Amino acid sequence: MDDVVQIIDCLEDVLLNNKRAFFSGKIYVDQVKVTEMLSRLREAVPASFHEAKSIISQRDALIYEAEQRAENIIRTANDTREKLIAESEVLKSAQTEAENILNSTRDYCDNLKYNVLHDLDSELYNSAIHLNETLDYIDGMRSEMRKRFPMRDTPNN
User: Fold this and answer.
1) Residues 109, 67: contact at Cβ < 8 Å?
2) SS (H, E, C) 129-145
3) Are 41 and 4 in contact (CB under 8 A)?
4) Domain encompassing residue 55
């Protein structure tokens, strides 16, 4: 897939560097070439959406993995606590240790979840900015093109 900006640059080059008609000043372009570039542009734009979907999937996988690890740690901690409770000499220290493991596991999971969500938010924000910049650029190019080359009313205007 081509880069959106690269396709727009090519389209701009076609529009700005073609020959002008002598009296009217109109530019004649190769309709097939321009249509092909617009098709490539349509194919290139949705890449940001696929990237965002991939990031969300990665986030979900990380959260699921963290939850599984947390459950395993908690299960292990609970098993350890039960064994220690059975031994009366270490009952108090076992309870304290189990609570510490449980709290640190919760803290670890909370921190991991926060970091994953923070990273995802940052990636989505960057993707949205990039997408908005691209859309703004495309809108600007369309406006400039319409100023330079007035078009008849069409269903897509």
Assistant:
1) yes
2) HHHHHHHHHHHHHHHHH
3) yes
4) 46-130
**120 is written with which tokens?**
């995802």
C-alpha distances out from residue 51 to 23, 46, 48, Å: 48, 9, 5
Q: How far apart are CA 107 and CA 101, in angstroms?
A: 10
C-alpha–C-alpha distance, residues 53 and 68, integer Å: 22
Residue 96 lies in a domain: yes
Each residue of 25-76: pLDDT tens digit? 787 778 888 888 888 877 776 667 678 888 888 989 999 998 999 899 999 9
Residue 50: inside a domain: yes
What's the token pair of residue 91? 């009952």
Q: What is the mean pLDDT of residues 97-124?
A: 91
Q: Number of folded domains in the chain?
A: 1
The pLDDT tens digits for 1-11 are: 457 788 888 88
Domain membership flag for residue 28: no
Predicted TM-score (pTM) of this structure: 0.34
